[in-house]
Predict the 3D structure of the following.
Amino acid sequence: MTSTTLAALATEVLTCAEGRGKAELSRRHAAAWLASREAGQPLPLGTAAPPDMPARPERPALLDPRDVPRRRPGTEAGRKAILHAVAHIELNAIDLHWDVVARFTDTPMPLGFYDDWVRAADDESRHFMLMCDCLEEMGLAYGDLAAHAGMWRAASDTAHDLPARLAVVPMVLEARGLDVTPGMIELFSKAGAVSAVAALQTIYAEEVSHVAYGAKWFNWLCGRDGLDPKEAFHDLVRRYFPGGPKPPFNEEKRAEAGMPPDFYWPLVERA
Ligand SMILES: [Fe+2]
Ligand SMILES: [Fe+2]
């Protein structure tokens, strides 16, 4: 085996700017780590200095969410905008998972922690490419529309705190994906968009495991530190994601991912 480390592989993905290039590199590096684990000779974890912000392509233009044009979801332009937004989320998610791998090597974790986030990064890489394929089918490429800036905000805010990162990214943001994806599938299904429906169904089925990885390792860290996971989760979300999660919740899928209702309902802001 070469002398590379997992942290170095993660940083290579984070510093790769081009979308499909990043996704392909991510898939190759995920395969290398998992093969080394299977062979019983895991690559060393190493340490790295991941960038504050991952490298990104020149396009799309990143705008303040308030400035991203809103299009009616029932129109073709609306559906293109949704797929473009999902592609943008998936590209961010590739970086989010590799960032967890590279950034927190000072916190001793079982190797299974790395397996989970490498697998999640591999899933996101496929999700991004699926979304690119759907966009291309509609005559569009990732980058052709504006996208939200500030999606890295949750990562920057929690760059010094692994439990906070797990609480905010997989357990709040990715759990939100479970809430909203069924509505998207219905929308594309009504429009007869066969490949978009298939791609979104794959994403929906696979995202449960990312929320579950978050819940699993958050609970693990709380158990190691003698903290009550529910209380710790409430504290961290109130501190780092003050808007809180928003209903309606997909209680069934959240339960499947190990998120009981008393984790998220008490965080809902009362109007
Ligand atoms: Fe995804
Ligand atoms: Fe995900």
The chain has ten helices and two strands. The mean pLDDT is 96. Residues 7 and 102 are 5 Å apart (CA to CA). Residues 93, 120, 124, 174, 207, 210 surround fe (ii) ion (ligand 2) (CB under 6 Å).
